[in-house]
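just leaving the lab so this will be short. below you get a single protein, a line of residues and a line of whole numbers that encode the local backbone shape. id like you to explain what the token line says about the fold, in plain words if possible. thanks a lot i owe you, the record is right below:

…
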Amino acid sequence: MLPQIITDTLINKAGIGIAIADAETQHLVFRNPAFASWFPGAEVDTPLDTAVEALRGETLDAALAGRVVEIGAKPKRRLLTIEIRISTAEHHGREILILECQNISRLRETEALIASYSAMADRRARDLEREKTRVEKLLLNLMPRTVYDEFRNFGTVTPKLYEPVSVIMLDFVGFTEMAVARDPTETVQELNELFTAFDRIAEQYGCERIKTAGDCYMAVAGLPHPTPDHARLAAECSAKMLRYLAHRNEAHVHTWQARIGIASGAVVGSVIGINKYIYDVFGPAVNLAARLQARADPMEICVLEATADTLGDDLDIGRVRTETLRGFGEMSVAAVVDRSCPRIAA
């Protein structure tokens, strides 16, 4: 008698729901308190699919086939997730169905919480990756790839001497008056369009755009990697920029004209600033290119006469004259003429 009492106590106090149904009629013949609390309609002699409304049709067939199924139960307005396993046994010559039920609501809630955190972490990782890509793209617009790699790996950039290189200095004619007289939004949009085109042209000729300052555009050929024909590449790049302007002016109401100066020599490149940093180059070649640009006529490329002799067969030397360049004295300068676009030279 004592073992039977112990068995009944264990079944009634167990944290899992246990029910027994007649295999032939599928009517309940027993259910413990846990099962009854989860399924209030589970009275003895009640059909199984009535006692457990969610356990019917394909779900019941799957459970009877020995598979573990999950169903929902809603006692006292709280939705529970119940895992049910049905096994068969024989009792006094009759086949019975034993239903073992476990409340896995907290497990599923925990899994859902983990999945939510995981999804949130994945979104955060994607956001960080997008931000990293955006920042990298921004920094690559400010400095050459090799400089960016050094800055990313070490947090600083060692100033480097690049020699020789050719500096392109471009400035638009009458920009100050244009900026005041026209709609500023339209002016900035067109300036952005022009500089974007110049960036693509510079990339074609292996030139590295260093910076823009207002309407001034500066690029360098032969940086960061040494290039023997840097002067020729700089001149051909400049000629292509002026050809682009000439063709664009034919189709637009507003015309843009530029002056370009090209100078060869040594420059020092480094990241300037701490909180607001920018990659810049400075040195005699930069100053000379600025002076030559100021002496150029509209839609003209101005170089030293000595440099003009190294530019190759596609570019001719135009007007040669002596100019007094601030900081450099009197020097012989020449206009570069692009044969394919005679309109470039004045």
Remarks:
- Confidence is low (pLDDT under 50) at residues 1-6, 342-346.
- The longest strand covers residues 258-272.
